[in-house]
């Protein structure tokens, strides 16, 4: 008793037949081979599997694939190709805000979602926004710095445009 | 003439770009043709006898390809035993993949199910009938040593794995003559690595050629090549281990685990790829745990506060079986040898008892032994300062080994080439604004705000030679190798045995090689992590990537430099000694004038070797291996400070700021060094405040999920300010030492001193980690 679902993933229409128990993360990783979405805990605690679902950052491990039927999913691959996180990618690179890279997908998703709603976050607000993103390697400070730098760049750009 | 343009520069990591684009290549991402998925039936009990194991229903379940038990799988693998000769008298039971007759910890794999999907394999696990006759589990190390306590496992004659004593002749006299003695007992909790990518392995045996390829998320691929070859009786050149991107390792992924061995065995049996990725629960009950020490210690001082001696007794609890191939004794061994290391302390006694119990194995994890030795030493130094009414800075100034007193041998026998404790202390005092913080602390106390400042000096072991494991008989390489070549178009490729887990190994190797060949780091492609394409070496463990890997790359680069200059000399009819490499070209050494490009050298040597003079060697590939000589280890040093605020009503500690002054010798890449330190500090703060594997008295781990086991998160962690002293080692040309353990080594010690500094006005004191709110309230007498 598999279910047919259709959804849009990174702008492409996708039709899949899945078991009801298949998570969105497993659909993305195993069926679509979009392996940039990572699994670290499969219980919504670590943030490695964050994706944008109809514009909201969600844990792909906690969403069933059938729940995403008819919706729009953006993964790290899609955000990368769209250029929407180019500035964050650059500041993360400059600041070495990643080591092993396993949490990076989730960090970028949280940062993207934060900056979409708060153009000038304080360091505390950035740390709060990362409260569901576990990173074992960096100690977080470089990630906070990188997000802060990207926010500054956006603000300066906006000022320059006025 | 060697350019040093790139060594010492903050080059960014090229391989970070893949991760930022979602294009990491982890073992967990790998899907191979014909691949099956493994799940394990695990013991639900900490100890017992297997009475019945019936897998017939599981074998018939949808999607199931094969089910293995000890009876059907273990015979193809030679058992392994985690003992080493240089730990005289140590013992441990032999191990094999699936439990044979007896289960030794809750989580011990009993049966393996292979199916077309992991979900189907897990479904089939539910159908296995496993009847275990429960036996009394040994869950406490002290109790384990009491006579009459059952043995943790068969194959041992007592629950004591290893015991040793280090003692100087003057120890008793030092305590007898002491003006002051301070003492305390400490408990350091059991915690674990929690790498974000769990352990992952895909084994792929091709029966048509006899080739075994294992994609393995590990930091030590050559070690596993050797392990698989030996345990399964294969020639090692038919075993290829590939460690692609690894989602965190920290020592945890260099041990031999039942599951990885079983996956290889299953692939050998089935002749098709087998995948195992631990889920988070499995990680908690099968990845090695760390620390778990109970330490009693005392320190003797004269009337001026000069440290005369330490007397330390460490009991460490390592689980049911010592790990292979490095053993579970190395941690305790380093604890008792690092005690008092920064100080001129002449006398010492350290006793170590390594004890079995029915829990997950403990073993090497980042900063092996350092956090325990540092926390005990630094807590007693602070205690001594309090007793003598000295400032914590002042007592350290009186006791740290003078910066001009090297070489120095510690009371425990470690040889220090040259360290910089006093320079580090002075710099720390300056960057943290120590005096202003003390004034602020006094002011805030009047308002009922309790802040604390904690300081911890440390020594870190880096660049280990064979003294670590090789001398004890372990097939653990202490040397590394590199192949550097000039491509036909004049670019550079370096294949090297040290490995990358995100710390920036490939970047620093590119920087080092670039400077030997007069090119830029982005012209140097670095390959790591594949035993078929890189020379054999130790890879990444105990802080050796920069110091040993960097030196290997440097020497390989110089060898290729000489070969290029010889060919250039032949082409240009010039003495090679009058030529040098710079800016991607061969230049005249005296004038810097360009003579011929590297691209032209590559072209001639590759496509027109016939135009070279007869007898001219056209090789543009250089191979170099390097094993450290001189001092057995290159020690580094540093000092950390922690600033905290303790809410005495709730017991919650807020981490306000952390400082580190570190001396890792010559710095190859300041950006990467600082981020190693920051990450290390947080990995030290985690177990100081949050991380603990909790067990009940039946030996069940009760918090084996990321909802229950607390890890340090962004909101709780402080900003970390870093400064450096640079004292290069003279043992190598490069002069670099390690930095990977430095942050973890002393962060917890500084934090514990800071919390106790905050609690001092209440007369309260804590000496157990993690320092949870409940434990702090208990120390305050509020609960």
TrEMBL record, chain A:
<dbReference type="InterPro" id="IPR051452">
    <property type="entry name" value="Diverse_Oxidoreductases"/>
</dbReference>
<keyword id="KW-0411">Iron-sulfur</keyword>
<dbReference type="InterPro" id="IPR036010">
    <property type="entry name" value="2Fe-2S_ferredoxin-like_sf"/>
</dbReference>
<dbReference type="InterPro" id="IPR006058">
    <property type="entry name" value="2Fe2S_fd_BS"/>
</dbReference>
<keyword id="KW-0408">Iron</keyword>
<protein>
    <submittedName>
        <fullName>(2Fe-2S)-binding protein</fullName>
    </submittedName>
</protein>
<keyword id="KW-0560">Oxidoreductase</keyword>
<dbReference type="GO" id="GO:0051537">
    <property type="term" value="F:2 iron, 2 sulfur cluster binding"/>
</dbReference>
<keyword id="KW-0001">2Fe-2S</keyword>
<dbReference type="GO" id="GO:0046872">
    <property type="term" value="F:metal ion binding"/>
</dbReference>
<feature type="domain" description="2Fe-2S ferredoxin-type">
    <location>
        <begin position="3"/>
        <end position="79"/>
    </location>
</feature>
<dbReference type="InterPro" id="IPR002888">
    <property type="entry name" value="2Fe-2S-bd"/>
</dbReference>
<dbReference type="InterPro" id="IPR036884">
    <property type="entry name" value="2Fe-2S-bd_dom_sf"/>
</dbReference>
<dbReference type="InterPro" id="IPR001041">
    <property type="entry name" value="2Fe-2S_ferredoxin-type"/>
</dbReference>
<dbReference type="InterPro" id="IPR012675">
    <property type="entry name" value="Beta-grasp_dom_sf"/>
</dbReference>
<keyword id="KW-0479">Metal-binding</keyword>
<dbReference type="Pfam" id="PF01799">
    <property type="entry name" value="Fer2_2"/>
</dbReference>
<dbReference type="GO" id="GO:0016491">
    <property type="term" value="F:oxidoreductase activity"/>
</dbReference>
<dbReference type="Pfam" id="PF00111">
    <property type="entry name" value="Fer2"/>
</dbReference>
UniProtKB/TrEMBL annotation, chain B:
<dbReference type="InterPro" id="IPR000674">
    <property type="entry name" value="Ald_Oxase/Xan_DH_a/b"/>
</dbReference>
<keyword id="KW-0560">Oxidoreductase</keyword>
<dbReference type="Pfam" id="PF20256">
    <property type="entry name" value="MoCoBD_2"/>
</dbReference>
<dbReference type="InterPro" id="IPR008274">
    <property type="entry name" value="AldOxase/xan_DH_MoCoBD1"/>
</dbReference>
<keyword id="KW-0500">Molybdenum</keyword>
<dbReference type="GO" id="GO:0016491">
    <property type="term" value="F:oxidoreductase activity"/>
</dbReference>
<dbReference type="GO" id="GO:0005506">
    <property type="term" value="F:iron ion binding"/>
</dbReference>
<dbReference type="InterPro" id="IPR037165">
    <property type="entry name" value="AldOxase/xan_DH_Mopterin-bd_sf"/>
</dbReference>
<dbReference type="InterPro" id="IPR036856">
    <property type="entry name" value="Ald_Oxase/Xan_DH_a/b_sf"/>
</dbReference>
<dbReference type="InterPro" id="IPR046867">
    <property type="entry name" value="AldOxase/xan_DH_MoCoBD2"/>
</dbReference>
<dbReference type="Pfam" id="PF02738">
    <property type="entry name" value="MoCoBD_1"/>
</dbReference>
<dbReference type="InterPro" id="IPR016208">
    <property type="entry name" value="Ald_Oxase/xanthine_DH-like"/>
</dbReference>
<dbReference type="Pfam" id="PF01315">
    <property type="entry name" value="Ald_Xan_dh_C"/>
</dbReference>
<feature type="domain" description="Aldehyde oxidase/xanthine dehydrogenase a/b hammerhead">
    <location>
        <begin position="21"/>
        <end position="136"/>
    </location>
</feature>
<protein>
    <submittedName>
        <fullName>Xanthine dehydrogenase family protein molybdopterin-binding subunit</fullName>
    </submittedName>
</protein>
